[in-house]
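cron nightly-structures :: item 1 of 1
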Amino acid sequence: MKAKQIYHSPVICYEVTEENSSYGVSVYYSTHGKSDNPQLCCVIKNLTSNIEKAHTFAKELANSCALPIHIPELAEEFLSL
């Protein structure tokens, strides 16, 4: 499975990213792209070293249409399971 893959809800993109053998997610509105505004974009680096786990998280976010502002809380909850 490749690291960089983008899942979509109707208006939000959930991108799996890789940096130094660690995987994370970048979540942003498709109409705004990546931004420094936490209302519009969120980047979680070093979420996991397991690529499948990163993709599972991104798919769950896309299925629930999670907003960028909620991603840190959802990541914490996901990792605690």
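cron nightly-structures :: done
The beta strands are 5-8, 12-19, 22-29, 41-48.
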